[in-house]
Amino acid sequence: MTLAITERISAAISHLKSIDPTYWARTLAQRLPGGAGSQVSGHETPEQLEDTLRTCSWEPYSHPSIAEGCTAFKTTCIVGREGLLPLQFLAEDRLLTLDDVKGTGFVSCTVAGVLGIEVNYTVIILGGAGGTEPEHEIVWTFHPGAPVPPSEVRCAKGMHGLTATMQQVRDLGLTFAKIIA
Fold first, then answer.
1. More confident residue, 148 or 73
2. What would you measure as the largest C-alpha separation in the chain, in angstroms?
3. Global pTM?
C-alpha cells in the first residue's frame, strides 16, 4: 500500500525524530526567524513548524539538484526566504566564513547582513535513513525555495570558522553563500 504524501512526510519526520531527535530539533530551530540559512515565515516555535510540515498539502517536486534516491515535495502553505545566495550577488570585497557546523565533512561559506530572496513555497526532501535502517525514509532537509547541490568541497582540519575572501571561496569551488543572522 502506498502512503498518501502527507502521511509519508509525517512518517519520515517521526522516523528521523526516533533516530536523531537532536538533529531534527536543530533543523526546525534553524528554519525559524533568527536561524541560519533558509527561514520560514509565520511560525514562531519548532512545534508549530513541525505541525505545519505534517499537515500541509504537498505535491511531488523534481529538480536537478535533488540527490539520486531521494524524493521531494513542494507546498505553498509554508513561505519564507531562501537561505543561499549565489556569490555573484555579493560585493567582491565581502568577507565570508568557512563553515561545517553540521559536521558533514564538507565546507560551505556563510555571509551575514544580507536578506535572502522571498519565495512562496517550501521543498521537503526525503531519503533513506542509511546506517542500520536504510529501508526507512527520513527527512533529509526542508527549506523555502529551490534546492542547490550540496558542497563537494572537503573540510580540511582547521578550516571551519576561517574568514575567507571572495576569491579564496571561489578558488575552493564554492558558488553559494549561506545567509546567517
1. 73
2. 56
3. 0.86
